[in-house]
Design a protein that fits this description.
The structure is a single chain. By secondary structure, this protein is of the alpha+beta class. Helix content is 19%, strand content 39%. The chain has helices at residues 18-24, 70-76, 134-139, 183-188, 214-230, and strands at 3-8, 13-16, 31-37, 42-48, 56-57, 59-60, 65-68, 83-90, 93-96, 109-111, 121-124, 129-133, 147-153, 158-164, 169-170, 172-173, 177-181, 198-201, 203-205, 208-212. Strands 1, 2, 3, 4, 5, 6, 7, 8, 9 and 10 form a 10-stranded antiparallel β-sheet that branches. A hairpin with a 4-residue loop joins β6 (59-60) and β7 (65-68). It is globular, with a radius of gyration of 21 Å. The protein starts with a strand and ends with a helix.
């Protein structure tokens, strides 16, 4: 099947019919990898059975399946316009270009789901704020355990956060997530603030959250090395 027909609604969801569901084998591939090409204004969807920290989910809905598309639309400069569309198959990807074919093509870049499927997540923004998603904040009960102690294993590039009522770092909880200032903690261990939001999965054991910053540290070292090479 070279093409599939979809419909977009006012919320930015796209609907796949039962026929498209069979072609995409959504019974075996319930997740979606989404990629964007901002230069060519293209969005690619690849059905997969593998759950990743960036995964979207195909959601059963009446006579078909829904996939949240608004974020990818915003990233590529599309306006939400309800109605029928066609996606064209390119290898394992199903590519969306709006109402007309792409005039040019750029590089594909992964587009991560902000509310990952079934995986506890946290992020650190460029101001040094650490943000725990709803799943994580609920598991460690940040509303009650509103402080934490942070320990860093430099050899493993891993942080361990222990939540309680008598920690050192204050944690603020709101409806959708919890957050805390992490700038001083990063600085004390020689880790620079990320230039863009650093998002990663975390492990939860009771009131203890563990996560790795190995990729962040490696990225910062590579940039530092490249900057020195230019001098």
């Amino acid at each position: 099947m070279d093409k599939i027909n979809i419909k977009m609604d006012i919320r930015g969801f796209i609907r796949f019919s039962n026929q498209a569901m069979k072609e995409l084998k959504l019974d075996k591939n319930p997740y979606a990898d989404i990629e964007v090409d901002t230069e060519g204004k293209r969005i690619a969807v690849t059905p997969t059975k593998t759950l990743k920290t960036s995964s979207f989910r195909f959601m059963p809905n009446g006579a078909g399946y829904l996939l949240y598309f608004k974020g990818a639309m915003n990233a590529t400069g599309f306006q939400i316009a309800p109605g029928p569309y066609t996606m064209v198959k390119e290898g394992t990807r199903f590519v969306f270009t709006g109402k007309a074919p792409a005039k040019k093509k750029g590089a594909w870049q992964p587009f991560a789901c902000r509310n990952s499927v079934g995986i506890p997540m946290l992020s650190i923004d460029s101001r040094g704020t650490i943000i725990f998603d709803k799943r994580t904040s609920t598991a460690v009960e940040t509303a009650k355990n509103d402080t934490m102690v942070a320990e860093y294993d430099a050899s493993k590039k891993t942080f361990t956060l222990t939540f309680s009522k008598k920690g050192f770092i204050n944690v603020r909880t709101i409806a959708s997530h919890a957050n805390a200032s992490f700038m001083g903690t990063l600085s004390s261990h020689g880790i620079a603030l990320p230039t863009k939001s650093f998002r990663t999965a975390c492990k939860i054991d009771g009131k203890v959250v563990t996560f790795s910053v190995a990729s962040l540290v490696a990225e910062q070292k590579a940039k530092s090395k490249a900057a020195k090479a230019k001098k």
